[in-house]
Amino acid sequence: MAKKRIQFMCTAFRDGFQSVYGARVLTPDFLPAVEAARDAGISWLEAGGGARFQSLYFYCNEDAFDMMDAFRGAAGPDANLQTLARGVNVVGLDSQSSDIIDLHAKLFKKHGMTTIRNFDALNDVENLIHSGRCITDAGLKHQVCVTLMELPPGCTGAHDAAFYSDTLQKILDADIPFDAVCFKDASGTAVPSKVYETIAAARKMLPAGTFIHFHTHETAGVSVLANKAAIDAGADAIDLSMAPCSGGTCQPDILVMWHALRGTEYDLDVDVEKVRAAEEVFKDCMKDYFLPPEATAVEPLIPWSPMPGGALTANTQMLRDNNIMEKYPQIIAAMSDVVRKGGYGTSVTPVSQFYFQQAFNNVMFGPWKKIAEPYGKMVLGYFGKTPVPPDAAIVKLAEEQLSLPVTTRPVLELNDADPSKGIAAATAVLQEADLPVTDENIFIASTCKEKGVRFLQGKAELGIRKIDKAAEAATAAAAPAATTNGPAEYNVSVNGNDIFMAFEGNMVTVGGKVYRVAIKPESGGSATTNSAANGSTSSTDITSQMPGSVFKQLVQPGQKVREGESILILEAMKMEMEVASPIDGTVATVNVQVGDQVATGQVLATITA
Q1: Structural domain count of the chain
Q2: Measured between alpha carbons, how far is 347 from 338 in angstroms, rounded to an integer?
Q3: I need a labelling partner for 314 at 20 to 30 A (CA). Which of 173, 205, 332, 601 fits?
């Protein structure tokens, strides 16, 4: 009896990059691996969209449209190149107007893409109607999504098979054109039995021959079993990846799934030896990139705090950037409460980031003391309708802190009425910055905002994480010599407390925790000392409440400010946080510049009364 051939999309170069490297990978570094995958017979590849759009402008100093063109060249003219879109959010964290959503589809078609997978994190079908029609009108294949996850234990009211069937029925009733249906579990938490029940029900609901695709991650350790459940229920395709971007926070490896299906009635129909060779090329391409240890691990606590693989490492890397990685366990624990009270939006971008930002605030400032603006806007209805009503007390806090009312207006209606959104608004921004007004530039300015404009102005900074071998050598040379071939070990007394420290290469153990470090000569810079008060004039230091980077400077020395007036905007964990003056007075000093990294308690500015 002939085996059923199971199709798969290789996600290594989009979801894999996001799930391991926070999407911060330079195009020339990975194109040889794309060519190797092509030569191995892999012709369906995820090639962009999602976080692999904004990250190129934010961290890689590259143009995402140039990347897509290069990807098409490497993959060949016949490859099915697929990208990821977030309904009305397209490829950003904020939602867009109708004309930008239409421009998204046209531009991705122009730059060589074949298929767009289109989802809404709230499973609000209203957010899929216009975007889905734009995708098909542009001549692209449309893969419409239902998003899955497991609710934290004890929660009910959504995210069961009946809820997913109801969402699918709404998609059918809305007459959204599509070429395939995808069930997307970004956190990898949906239990296999529920996956089977959901897809079996969908197979009965959909017209005969409808193509069904299933997507999951290994984060919770059940991806292979979930894939097998989906296939048994009637799915036609699954998502698989290649090492080093496989397993852990990623999709299971092609070779792992091939092995899991041996002896069954299913076949991936791949030349495993060619795939093995392609993976060796890919590993060599990525050998200089820092591989976070959590990217290769299963996280048993994820079912309680469903953090998607694509967001987990991006967030831990930002915690590392801000030297607060020790907060990660507390933030993950806090996520459970945030999900429970937020209306059960699926933990997938952008909602997963909203969850993490609010959990971050709950840890850094105290539970529910500071509502993260995106999370607050979500519970107030500005991203669409949540699966269940959010907690009433949290909604009230969001109204008070954000000074916004609850809304039930459709997201597109809100955005089309917003003068700061759309093609006309982006055109004005480009003209003010004396930049060329092209379709690509309009889209970049709309979806990437100030950072996109900085890229177009040639002011973007490189923020990838490669292993600095020269710094490692310098660290090894600068580390105190050991008396043996093992690590140099010390007991360091700090404020009367003894702390064990060990140096070995570029790894330092401090009090039982291991850190990767780089020792560089001090380059010097301006001091951040406070100006002394003289006479009867008093001064007030404005300090940072949390680590981050300076995003905007809103005042200059000598400028008068009122109590509560913003003087700086910091950016941390993809959030913009205003730093306000606590008094009426005059700005004496601004001790930081745009782009500076700041630490908790650092003096940012001084105000004289």
Answers
A1: 1
A2: 11
A3: 601
